[in-house]
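User: Show me a protein chain along with its predicted structure.
Assistant: Here is one chain, sequence first, then structure tokens.
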Amino acid sequence: MRPDAVVTHFLFASALVLAAGHAAGWAARRLKQPYIVGQLAAGIALGPSLLGTLAPDAYALLFPEQIATALQGLAQFALVVFLFAVGYELDLAILGARARTAVGVALTAFFVPMAVGSGCALLFREQLRALDMPDLSPGTVVFAGIALSITAVPVLTAIVRENGLASTVPGVMAVSAAGLLDVIGWTILAGTLLESGEGQTLHWGWRALIATAFITLMLVAARPLLRRLLWRTQMEPVLRLALLIGFAFGSASVTQFLGLHAICGALLAGVVCPREKDGTLDPDLLRPLHDVSSLLLPFFFVVSGQAVALNSMSGTGWAAFAVVTLLAVTTKIGSGTLAARLGGLDRDDARTVGVLLSARGLTELIALNAGLQAGLLSGPLYTVLVLMALTTTLLTQPLLLLVDLAARRTELRRTLHGPRAPDTAPPAEPQPRPSGNSANPTNTAAP
């Protein structure tokens, strides 16, 4: 194919990806689902599973192999910008007075699903071989646990905001615990990717040493240097944005070289990026980061969808999908609910926290994509886990509605069938009753 023809194909494919991705996102939002659910569905629809099966000639025309590298490049660009913004927004100070409860919820909701996922990988290794998985390495076993324990902070935050939970106890608790879950998950994922080291010339020990030195340098020196260079010089917002995005890409290139994947460097760059003097986020930086990443993320979903092969799913694959999805939902909701209940939340608030923590979405896809590239997942198992991520995210909103309905029924039952005095006793003075989900007086306001 001539270079000008490659450019033509790339431009037309880009137009299709942007239009289909954002149209599907808009439709998902109209159906009370997160925006990225629609974008992921569009990415799978434009991949070999649907478009490639229903119209193979059109698929080959729209997405020839010659433009795959360019699409991958745009997907990585969007991913780096998105994760840089996630790291910049990460603020564990939101824990406030409920820090101990949030830490308990985060640890329980991460390590219980991780233990179940890793245990199942060891227990069902023969079934995994049927999904083209070779003999299990320690990295693969750990990654299987990570796949079940991830929570998508961006999706969770959007669900909390759209359901009016941002200022409630379960909303703040879920967001706080999810932030800690992110820190734990990305740290373990980085170690797993470092250990796998597929295609690396450096021994993992040297890469671990260099990675430790790089992370230390970023945490100790990068923030004060950036503050002095960008803030004290009163640099123009556009130039500041360009330099910081360049800084994120430089950090991502280092971690990519070390086998940690670019996502780790982008997230680290956002974490060390200094805030304003009063500790607030810089709107001139955050707004364009969100705009750029939101605009280009459909490319990541399409690239991810290219590896999803629904038409090659066997009976073992569909059985694995059912089991994995069931485990992902029950372990996450159960562990999150139990930990929140032990932390002092009432029953309905604790259930809400557990359901919110089961949302996986984009963060899960990023981790799965990294695992696929590192050789920790086979193609069929990747398809199973992507479908699990989509299903668990789709289930979050209906499960929230069920929790709210159960809470309303409980309150109605209390109102209609409250304790009554015996007929022979004088009527008792009316007692004030709790309203909503605030049976525990410590849960009536957000921390």
